[in-house]
Design goal:
This protein is α+β, with helices and mostly antiparallel strands and about 130 residues long. The chain has one domain: HIT family, subunit A (2-Layer Sandwich). About 30% of the residues lie in helices and about 20% in strands. Helix 2 packs across helix 3. The termini are far apart.
Length: about 130
C-alpha cells in the first residue's frame, strides 16, 4: 500500500500523540491550514470505535480553537474528504474575507491573488495553543 499520510507526516508536525497528529499544511495561499491526521490507516470515521471517533474530534476541535485564538479568522472550515488520499484526516482551515477564494471553498474559483497575512511566529503560536488544549 502506498499512502502519503502513512509514509510522510503530511506537513509540519505541530502536535502529536500515539493516536493522531496536527500538521501545518504547505498551502501558501492559506497560512494556518491545519490537518488532523489519524496515525492508523483507516478510511472512514465509522471505521473507528466510538471512543476513538470522539477522541479524534476533540483534537479537531482543539485545532479549530487554536486557529481562532491565534489567527482570529472570520470563519473556520472543517472538511474530511479523503477522495484523493483515503486515509482519515480532517482539514481545519482558517478563512478570511480577504483570502484568495472567499466566499468560495478553498478548492473553488479563486477570487483574488493575495493570501491573508499571517503572524511571523504562526507555527510557534499554534504549537503553544495546541499544547494547552491537547
Amino acid at each position: 500500500m502506498n499512502c502519503p499520510l502513512c509514509d510522510t507526516p503530511g506537513g509540519t508536525v505541530l502536535w502529536q500523540d500515539d493516536f493522531c497528529r496536527v500538521v501545518l499544511a504547505d498551502e501558501p495561499d492559506y497560512p494556518g491550514f491545519l490537518r488532523v491526521i489519524l496515525n492508523a490507516h483507516v478510511k472512514e470515521m465509522t471505521g473507528l470505535p466510538a471512543a476513538d471517533r470522539q477522541a479524534l474530534m476533540r483534537v479537531v476541535f482543539a485545532a479549530e480553537a487554536a486557529l481562532r485564538e491565534v489567527m482570529a479568522p472570520d470563519k473556520v472550515n472543517l472538511a474530511s474528504l479523503g477522495n484523493v488520499v483515503p486515509h482519515l484526516h480532517w482539514h481545519v482551515i482558517p478563512r478570511f474575507a480577504d483570502d484568495p477564494h472567499f466566499p468560495n471553498p478553498v478548492w473553488g474559483a479563486k477570487q483574488r491573488d493575495t493570501p491573508h497575512a499571517a503572524p511571523p511566529d504562526l507555527s510557534a503560536r499554534l504549537v503553544a495553543s495546541l499544547t494547552r488544549k491537547g
